[in-house]
Amino acid sequence: MHDKNVAELSAGLKNGDFSSEELTRVYLNRIESLDKDLNSFISVTAEQALAAARIADQQYKSGTAGPLTGIPIAQKDIFCIQGVRTSCGSKMLANFIAPYDATVVTRLNEAGMVMLGKTNMDEFAMGSSNENSFYGAVKNPWDLLAVPGGSSGGSASAVAAQLAPVATGTDTGGSIRQPASLCGITGLKPTYGRVSRYGMIAFASSLDQGGPMARSAEDAAMLLNAMAGFDHHDSTSVDREVPDYTGNLDQSIEGLRIGIPAEFFAEGLDDGVASVIQAALQEYEKMGASLVDISLPNSGLSIPTYYVVAMAECSSNLSRFDGVRFGHRCEDPVDLEDLYKRSRGEGFGAEVKRRIMIGTYALSAGYYDAYYLKAQQLRHLISDDYKKAFEQVDVIMGPTAPSVAFDIGEKSDDPVSMYLSDIYTIAVNLAGLPGMSIPAGFVDNRPVGLQIIGNYFDESRLLNIAHQFQCETNWHKQVPPGYE
Ligand code: GLN
Q1: Which pLDDT tens digit goes with each residue over 471-481?
Q2: Does residue 376 form part of some domain?
Q3: What is the 3-state secondary structure (H, E, C) of the chain?
């Protein structure tokens, strides 16, 4: 059963070929036997999953089931779930039982989905390799020596290894698309404001966005249908109608204008990755699309801009984890200052501390104008590049990441080289645009993702374009050996 896509699983449940309880057990058994190597889950909620599956089976009997009823899902451990530990990959929240559900969780529950557990992630979503998790590194099922990407590495690894049919992720600078690329799955970061951030533990609030991670665009569309929509709990959520994202998948892409930014194919891009992307672009030409050379001249500014904005915002967001209101509390503090210092010193890992320090510095009196304000100005320039490009083209394509998955440990001592893994994804968050990564081939048996960037609220078009590629190619159907 685990090799079926969501639409097939949904049909199987509807026809009574199998029950949700049977399906859920299949995935729970796979997690039990296969996740020892991968470490893609932080918590497995087996009892709850089986209880939810039984309710779903009742709904099929009573005729009240929807398309996602009874379908298992893995939730990134950044989404608060009432009564369930929500660790965000950190020791700081190792004992945090969320008192309420994130809106995304409420919506997926209302759709009848069955949560299998919470997936591993870089601590507070900071990272590109999943090596920053307090719960240990996640492995890439395509090669256990390789990273799965980050920060949604647990979700990507679990979906690629078929331990869950779909999963949620969050993307602040690439954390859905980059691990999707490195693990050979399909991931979509929606337009900022499309999916509610309520109950999604904040990293950099002006950039964070949740989205679906799946094996195919069709599955991602089904999941986005349930995730997207206005939420009065989130003041940045946009009140705009949610289309049926599965409704547009079959439309022809004849005449589509695809922008190819010169800056995405310059120095730093691995040759093997470049050839895979060129071949994917030729496939699009065969389908009737035209390729248009474009320029995004401020691309080189996106990493420095992001690392000022993201660090400034995280230093503010993470101030709430003080050992009093939230988070790990040290033993026997002598006074309040000692409590703060030791609780935060013990609770946060090295990368999180580095970012809080840099962010606090960038926001401090005398430096604010030089760093944060300047970064906000650059953010406008970067967004303007995209605005201009979308006057000429319908979508933009290029690589998701400059290389395939690197080895575990390869970049852990070099934060700057790690930050460069997101060179093609970060500007999309700074501009608030939607972006996708879809499997496009392999280099040395490690997957390569093609990135598709759209204009604001163009998720439907992205999913259509991705689906058309997946009708012509089989890259998204490849399964890592040992996980068939
Ligand atoms: N890798 C980037 C970072 O470390 C992006 C992370 C993310 O999107 N959550 O900040």
Answers
A1: 999 999 999 99
A2: no
A3: CCCCCHHHHHHHHHHCCCCHHHHHHHHHHHHHHHHHHHCCEEEECHHHHHHHHHHHHHHHHHCCCCCCCCCEEEEECCECCCCCECCCCCCCCCCCECCCCCHHHHHHHHCCCEEEEEECCCHHHCCCCCCCCCCCCCCECCECCECCCCCCHHHHHHHHCCCCCEEEEEECCCCCHHHHHHHCCEEEECCCCCECCCCECCCCCCCCEEEEEECCHHHHHHHHHHHECCCCCCCCCCCCCCCCCCCCCCCCCCCCEEEEEHHHHCCCCCHHHHHHHHHHHHHHHHCCCEEEEECCCCHHHHHHHHHHHHHHHHHHHHHHCCCCCCCCCCCCCCCHHHHHHHHHHHHCCHHHHHHHHHHHHHHCCCCCHHHHHHHHHHHHHHHHHHHHHHHHCCEEEEECCCCCCCECCCCCCCHHHHHHHHCCCHHHHHHCCCEEEEEEEEECCEEEEEEEECCCCCHHHHHHHHHHHHHHCCHHHCCCCCCC
